[in-house]
Amino acid sequence: MDARSEESQRGGAPPSGDQVGRAQMHVDVVRHAVIGPPHHGVTRYGRGLLVAARTVEAADAAGHRLRHVDLETASPGRADLLHVPFTDRIFGATLDAAVDSVRHLLDREAPRSWVVNLHDLPQREEGADRYSRRAAAYAWLAARADVVVANSQHEARGVHDLPGCADVNIRVIPLPLEPVAAPGTGRRAPDGEPLRGGDPPTPADIGLLGFVYPGKGYERLIDAAPVGTCVRAIGQAAEGHHDYLHDLMERARQRGVDFEVTGYVPEGMLAAELHAVNVPVCPHRHVSASGSLNTWIAHGRVPLVLESPYMIEIAHRWPGAVTVATAQDFRSRLLECLGDPRRTRALGAPPSWGWSEVAAAYSRVWAEELS
C-alpha cells in the first residue's frame, strides 16, 4: 500500500473492504512523450523504454505502482508524471520551435512532475555560436524539469555546465545493451532498396555503425586504413548530409581505400552485418553517449574506440568491452586489430545491462519523484 493510500485511512471509522481495495489498486500514471520518426535513435529509445517499463510494471506486485502509457494513444486526463526523451532535432525545425513544443506539451498535460531525458547534448566542439544557442535551449529544459536524466557521467557534467544548471536534479542511467535480432540474409543498397539476390554480406575489414554525418571520425579512419582495405559504413547518411558521402568516397579513392555504405539495414539483417566486420571501430572523439557502440558490445564485439572521457567511462564501467586508442596510437592499434581480428570478438557474454535493468532504474527515479 503506498503512502497516499495510508494517509487516506488515518482517523475516523475503519475503512470498508471496498475502500481498501480501491486504495490498494491506486497507480500513478506515467505518460511517455515518444515523438519523432520511427527510425530515429531517440524515438526508438523512447519506445524501447516504454515497452520495457510496462514489462517491469507487470512484474511488480508490490511497492509504488506505476502505469505507463504512450502520450499519442493515451485517453484524456492529467498525467501524474510526464517523461520526455528529448533531442532538439525531433521536437522542432528550430531550437525555439523545439522548446516551444515541450512548453506546449507541459501546458496541455499539466503533470504533477516531469522528467526530461536529454540526448545529443550541446558540446563546445560544435563551435561557439552553435553551442551557445543549443546550450540555452537545453538549459531552459533542464532548469525547469523536476528530474534530468543523462545517459553517461560525461553527459551529466555537460548538463551541470549549462548556464544556470549547476544545481539541477540529475540522474545517470546508461544506454542499454540491446540484443541484436537473429541473423538474416540480404543487404540494402544506399538508396534503401534490397540488393539483387538477397546475398549475405561479404566480409569487410573495418566497420562503423550508425548514421553517417560529419564529426564522427570517418576521415580519421580512412586516413589510418591501409591501402586496399574495405571500410564499410553500416547505416545511411543523416538528413542533409548525402553530399558528405561523396566527399568520403573521394577521400577513400585517393587513399586507395574501398569505402562502402549499406544504407538503412532492417533489424533482422543487422546481426549479419555486424558479424561480417573484422574490426568494428568507433572513432568519434567528442561522443557523449553512443547507442551504436552499445550495439557492437551487445553483439559480442570489442570495438576499437578513440580515447575520450566517455570512452574511458565505458572502459571502466564494462572492463574489456572496448579497446581504447589515443589519437597518437590509433593507426598502430588499428593495424594490430586487423592483424588479429579475434581480439575484436568477446570471449564471454556481454555485460548484463539490457532494457529490463534500464527500465528498473527509470522506475526507481519515477517512483521517488512521485512518492
Automatic annotation (TrEMBL):
Residues 1-21, 181-200 are annotated as: Disordered. SUPFAM superfamilies: UDP-Glycosyltransferase/glycogen phosphorylase. This is Glycosyltransferase family 1 protein. It comes from Kocuria soli. The lineage of its organism: Bacteria, Bacillati, Actinomycetota, Actinomycetes, Micrococcales.
